[in-house]
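note to self: dont lose this again. the chain is below, predicted strucutre after it. 75 aa total, dont forget to put it in the shared folder this time
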Amino acid sequence: MIDYNFVVMARGEHEERVRKIEEELLARQNAVVRPGRMDRMLYGLGEWLEKSGARLKTQHATVRTAHTYQGGHAG
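---
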């Protein structure tokens, strides 16, 4: 004979564990994670590098001119 009380108790314990894990996961998802000082500093540095790089690219872009051919030579 199978002891059904054992099965019912095990099922209840399992459901309780699953419920606790789901609550922990939900709490982690809802937690507001504020970036630390180092994260903000690195983000600001990255923004500055991107802006500086874009500015340098535009300053030193090669000037393209249309090539014309006269007498077999590019002019």
